[in-house]
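User: Structure please.
Assistant: Input sequence and predicted structure:
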Amino acid sequence: MTASPRPKARSKDRRNIFQRHYGPRLRVWRAIVTPASLLVLLLLLVRLSGLLQPVELLLYDQMLSRRPFEAPDPRITLVGITEEDIQALNHYPVNDTELAQVLRTLSDAQARIIGLDLFRDVPVQPGYDQLLKTYDNTPNLIAIEVINDTDAEAIIKGPARVPPERISFANFLEDKDWILRRMLLTVPTNDSKQAFSLRVATAYLQAEGYQLAPRDPQQGLSFVATDAAPSVTSSPSVTPAQSTATDPSAAPAQSIATASRHRLSTFQPHTGGYVREAIAGKAVMINYRQNPEPFALLTLSQVLQQQFDPELVRDRIVLIGNIAASSKDVFLTSGRRETLWSQSNNYSRGIPFSFGLEAHAHATSQLISRVLDRRWGIWSLPEAVEYGLIIVAGAVGTGLGLLLASPLGRLFGLALLSSALLLLSFGSLTWFGLWLPLVPVLLALTGAGFTTLFVDWELRLKLRQSTDTLERAYNAVHNGPLQTIAILLSQTSSQNEVHEQLSRLNQELRTIYESMKVGDGDGHQFLLGTQWLEAQEPLPLLLDQVYQLTVIRDFPGFDSIKIFMRPQLEALENCSLTIEQKKLLCAFLEEALCNVGKHARNAQRIDVVAQLVGKRKQRYCLQITDNGETPQRGLTVAGTPGRKSGAKYKSQGTRQMEALARELGGTFERLPNQPQGTLCRLSWPIKPPWGLRFRRFLRRI
């Protein structure tokens, strides 16, 4: 009955099997994932710094302007003062008599709300008294003023005799690139102050049974249904989608009865591509209605002469303002291909200007449509979710590089995913108003993907070069020394000691080549003679194995040693070294022992001792000492690596030992032992200096 293997041995065997099968793959993955992760981290820092904001806003403008056309808003009509009107009147601005006539005509045509986007803080004679009476008789009139940014006091006051609750500010909120993307709705210093678009939309929605909810810092701005909300039902023969397409005012009627609060997508400091763009007050991203003629348009002359269809005014919002080509009330507008300004100036090249009257109309339409039509405003995901998407995109790009071995396959996969990402971002903005972080996500995806492509290409190139070098080296050894050894073996007797040594040499050379050709798996194993050693073993045990395998080799210096003392390596139990450093330390011990075996004469003992040295025991010391007679072979090699030593010639073994000392941040010494023999000592600090740690970190990167 055979005993079953111990649990520790079984776990070690399983670990070795895992390392042999998956170790090389994990090493390649680590080499690919590290640079890709650093690139994604750098991208996160770049976005946090705001450097990507101009690019994200530019791409946002392009997507917004390429959305499909929408139906015009039948609730709003514009009355514009054109260049032809000014020429027909032969004066500017419009005097009080003419303005009073326009207001009376629109009021008689039963306009629901009349918005006056003209500054009338001073009289424009003649007819000022007549205009004041018209103000008194037009309770549905909303006028404008301009306020300052500090205390919301009026810089340009509204018309006299118009009560404060029907006065609104007309301030615009331009970005740093002078493009109008946002509309300011309220200011924090005065709750009674509202933007022109918000005041007009609120007045219109009151007749529909909605009112602006009290200011709530947590909820933002929202409209709530009142008890007077109309109960509207759709016709059985018309689907809700058809009703919406033909008349936005009839859109989702049943939704009015099912929802009591309609939140506005107010602007946040991190909305979309903006980074720490804090503003005073509440604002919204303007969701322009994509249509060459989004609103019905009447000229001032048509209203004065009453040459218009009354249905274009009845029960509508009518906004009066200046749309003359010479007007200075214009702003660069994102997200629109055609505006009244571009049409009047035949402009079709870049970003068009838009009249202030148009901007107010779009913002008003957006607020009303959000409540009555459930039309989406522009909104974005929480900031943490956006940065999470960037990390996920980087992981997807890295995973694509790991899963697809072919470079062409990776390029095709990146192109396919990038196209899908573009379509998803455009679709979400078009149909849901969701502004996704397209630029950083796309950069993370493609950047990580191309990084894996380049790193993998470099790894393949290095592997190919290493394989070619190994093949050339083996061919040279096979066609030279191995053939010579084969001839000598055929010429010597099998009972001869020289024959045995030649056979051993032949086997060692062939074993070395085979081990290099197979590789060391995951890098945790290395070859010592003809034996594989596990570099993950504790350092004292590993060095003891090296000692045992080396002293049994057939070297003349070992023949005179009768007793081999067991190495004293307990001081290295807590020594923390990397796998490569352990390999180098094992090579150091093997080289020192081989030197004793090759050069020492009549040695009686070999001592291998590890200990803690220094005043505070802050350094490890490993020394190999023999008491044999040593010929002159350059024993005055001592000091810190990097300094010039007393020896004029350094063997390959000496250079390897000095390289190990440099790697550990320590010193290597080979000195004469008293009364005879050689002392070979390597010492290094328990905690490497910061400079060495930093160099190791850079090397790993």
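The CA atoms of residues 182 and 567 lie 78 Å apart.
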